[in-house]
C-alpha cells in the first residue's frame, strides 16, 4: 500500500523507479498508473531470490526496502515472517553493499513492544514478550532488520536510514487485519456488518494517512542528515480502537446502527498481550527531517471513504 503511493510520488519528482514485489499481499491494480509511466519498471520478484535481486539492483542509487510479511494471529505460521524479514532483509543489504547503494529500511512501531514509556521514543528501551508467543515474530524479525541495517552501516559503510512506521492507511489498504483496523472497520460499516473489536477496544493507536508516511519516507531518502539515524514516522494523534469505530460510523453516515462484536484477545492472539497504547515521539523526525504530519485522522477517513464510494459508483 505504502509502496504504490511512494512510487507515484517519486515518479512525479522525476526519479526513475524499479519496483519489485511478489504480489503475495500487494496488487498490480495499486500501481496501474505507474505502470504506464516511462520512468517505471516492475518485476514480480521475492526478495529471498538473491540472484535476481542483485541483478535488478545494479546501477540503482537507493533501495527503499518495504517488503515484509506481517504476523497477525497465533493460528498463522511464523516462518514466512521470520525468513522474509530476516534473510530477505540481509539480501537487500548485501545487494546494496555490492553496488554501493543507499538503503532506506522500513521498520515498525511493533518493535517497541509493551514499552510503557510514552510517547515512544527512538532512544527508549524496548519491551518484547516471550519467545513462545508467535505474535512476537514480526516485531523480533523487524528489530533484527534494524540491527542488520546498523551493522552494514558501521561495518561496511553502507549508507542507511531506518524509519519506524506507525500505523497508516489509504483507499488501497488491504481489507484484512494485515492492513490495520481502520480499513477493516470501514468495510464493515459500509457493508452494514459487525465491526470486530479485539478486547474491549480501549487500546489506542496513532493512525496516519498514507500521504504523511510517503512524505516522511521521501524526506528520509533525500536528507543526508538522516543517514545512520533511526526515525519514527507517523501521526501522533492518539485514539482508541473503539472510538475509531464510532468516528468512522459517524463520518460514513450510513443511517444504519453501529454493530460492535467484542472478541476476547485470547481467542485471537492466545497468550499475547496486546500493546495498550501506541503513540510516536516525532521530535527527532521534526528536527532532522522537518517532518510534520498534515492530515488529521478524521480527514484521512473522509478521503478514504470518498474514494471507496467513488470506485463503487
Structure in words:
- The chain has 313 residues and is an alpha/beta fold.
- It has a single domain, classed as Rossmann fold (3-Layer(aba) Sandwich), CATH 3.40.50.720.
- The chain has eleven helices and twelve strands.
- The strands form five sheets. It has a four-stranded parallel β-sheet, sandwiched between helices.
- Helix 1 crosses helix 7 (210-222), helix 4 (79-99) packs parallel to helix 5 (137-156) and helix 8 (241-252) crosses helix 11 (297-312).
- The two termini are 22 Å apart.
- The model has no long low-confidence stretch (mean pLDDT 94).
Biggest sheet character: 4 strands, parallel
Assign the CATH topology: Rossmann fold
Strand percentage lies at: 15-25%
Number of domains: 1
Residue stretches low in confidence (pLDDT < 50, at least 5 long) are: none
Instruction: Please state the average pLDDT score.
Output: 94
Topology of this protein?
Layout: H1 2-12, E1 17-21, H2 32-35, E2 40-44, H3 50-56, E3 62-65, H4 79-99, E4 102-108, H5 137-156, E5 160-165, E6 168-169, H6 181-190, E7 195-198, E8 204-205, E9 208-209, H7 210-222, E10 230-233, E11 239-240, H8 241-252, E12 260-263, H9 265-269, H10 283-289, H11 297-312
Parallel strand pairs: 1-2, 3-4, 4-5, 5-10, 6-9, 7-12
Antiparallel strand pairs: 8-11
In short:
By secondary structure, this protein is an alpha/beta fold.
Kindly list the characteristics that best describe this protein.
single chain, 313 residues, alpha/beta, Rossmann fold, 4-stranded parallel sheet, two-stranded parallel ribbon, 12 strands, 40% helix
Amino acid at each position: 500500500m505504502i509502496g504504490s503511493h511512494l512510487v507515484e510520488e517519486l515518479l512525479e519528482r522525476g526519479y526513475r523507479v524499479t519496483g519489485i514485489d511478489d504480489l503475495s499481499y500487494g496488487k498490480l491494480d495499486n500501481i496501474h498508473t505507474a505502470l504506464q509511466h516511462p520512468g517505471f519498471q516492475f518485476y514480480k520478484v521475492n526478495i529471498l531470490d538473491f540472484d535476481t535481486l542483485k541483478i535488478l539492483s545494479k546501477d540503482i542509487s537507493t533501495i527503499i526496502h518495504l517488503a515484509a510479511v506481517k504476523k497477525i494471529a497465533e493460528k498463522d505460521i511464523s516462518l514466512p515472517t521470520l525468513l522474509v524479514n530476516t534473510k530477505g532483509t540481509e539480501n537487500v543489504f548485501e545487494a546494496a553493499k555490492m553496488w554501493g547503494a543507499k538503503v532506506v529500511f522500513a521498520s515498525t512501531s511493533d518493535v517497541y513492544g509493551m514499552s510503557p514509556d510514552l510517547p515512544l521514543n527512538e532512544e527508549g528501551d524496548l519491551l518484547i514478550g516471550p519467545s513462545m508467543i508467535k505474535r512476537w515474530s514480526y516485531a523480533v524479525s523487524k528489530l533484527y532488520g534494524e540491527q542488520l541495517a546498523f551493522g552494514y552501516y558501521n561495518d561496511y559503510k553502507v549508507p542507511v536510514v531506518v524509519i519506524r512506521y506507525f500505523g497508516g492507511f489509504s483507499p488501497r489498504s488491504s481489507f484484512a487485519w494485515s492492513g490495520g483496523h481502520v480499513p477493516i472497520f470501514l468495510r464493515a460499516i459500509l457493508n452494514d456488518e459487525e465491526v470486530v473489536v479485539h478486547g474491549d477496544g480501549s487500546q489506542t493507536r496513532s493512525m496516519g494517512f498514507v500521504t504523511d508516511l510517503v512524505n516522511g519516507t521521501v524526506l528520509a531518502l533525500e536528507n543526508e542528515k538522516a543517514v545512520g539515524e533511526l526515525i519514527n514516522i507517523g501521526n501522533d494523534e492518539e485514539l482508541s480502537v473503539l472510538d475509531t469505530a464510532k468516528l468512522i460510523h459517524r463520518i460514513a453516515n450510513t443511517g444504519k446502527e453501529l454493530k460492535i462484536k467484542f472478541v476476547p484477545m485470547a481467542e485471537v492472539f492466545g497468550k499475547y498481550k496486546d500493546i495498550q497504547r501506541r503513540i510516536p515521539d516525532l521530535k527527532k523526525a521534526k528536527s532532522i527531517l522537518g517532518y510534520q504530519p498534515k492530515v488529521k485522522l478524521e480527514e484521512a477517513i473522509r478521503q478514504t471513504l470518498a474514494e471507496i464510494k467513488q470506485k463503487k459508483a
